[in-house]
UTP--glucose-1-phosphate uridylyltransferase (Alpinimonas psychrophila), 301 residues
Amino acid sequence: MKSRVTKAVIPAAGLGTRFLPATKALPKEMLPVVDKPAIQYVVEEAVNAGLIDILMITGRNKNALENHFDRNFELEARLEEKGDDSRLDKVTHSTDLADIHYVRQGDPLGLGHAVSKAAMHVGQEPFALLLGDDIIDEEFDLLVQMIAEHSERNATIVALMEVPDELVSSYGIASIEATEKEGVVRITGLVEKPELGQQPSNYAVIGRYILQPEVFAVLAETKPGRGGEIQLTDALAVLAKDTNLAGGVYGIVFSGRRYDTGDRLSYLQAVVQIAAHRKDLGVAFSAWLVDYAASLPAQEK
């Protein structure tokens, strides 16, 4: 029986150690990308796809996340007194985005464990999973496409990107076969962070999923895998192998702009690329960037 996707889950419990000392007191999800925290881009993507019931899986020292999406009466009153309607709108925008709930992961036992914490909130419904480290450029409607594909197939849908050889060991990598639809593949197997040369393809699972509720039962039986953590990839591999369990697993191959804010270099690239495509900043920033790039000395590799 088909169910409509109405809820989104966003895991945000990671420690952000790659960004220390900036993340000593500030959650990595709150690092600014131009003038918004990274997590707001992800929430806005879910809302733009029609998902306004959102559960965040958090951990210790993540209070700033809740505060950001809550009211700030003193700041709002000060801006209103000053007649600064533009900034007031920006402050209240994050508050009014969605109905956001929070649950703590507790033990940091991996992405699969974090997802399992959503079982009570999600119930027996399919749901969207959006990783807080991944920002998909708002110009692309990837999540909308994935929801539509789920409605058609009643199966788990993941987003895939083709990555170069040197990055395969950083992702879950899929074995794929073609379907009747261009850009949509059936996933026959998944391997978490394979060694170079052992990967079944170069198609990596990126941080967008439409998951069937059966994933919770599979996760409950999933043993710790790579890194001693409960890997979502291992649970998806079970669903991909047993197509009778929940309709199998399919992938939408994405070739648009995606930013990984969990890596320092990728984070800096995200700030630059998003700023360059902003209507209010793009022209002036791009002009400065071209001049600055031209002034840089050649760097030896």
The radius of gyration is 20 Å. Residues 156 and 211 are 5 Å apart (CA to CA). The chain has twelve helices and 13 strands. Residues 7-295 form a domain with the Spore Coat Polysaccharide Biosynthesis Protein SpsA; Chain A fold (CATH 3.90.550.10).
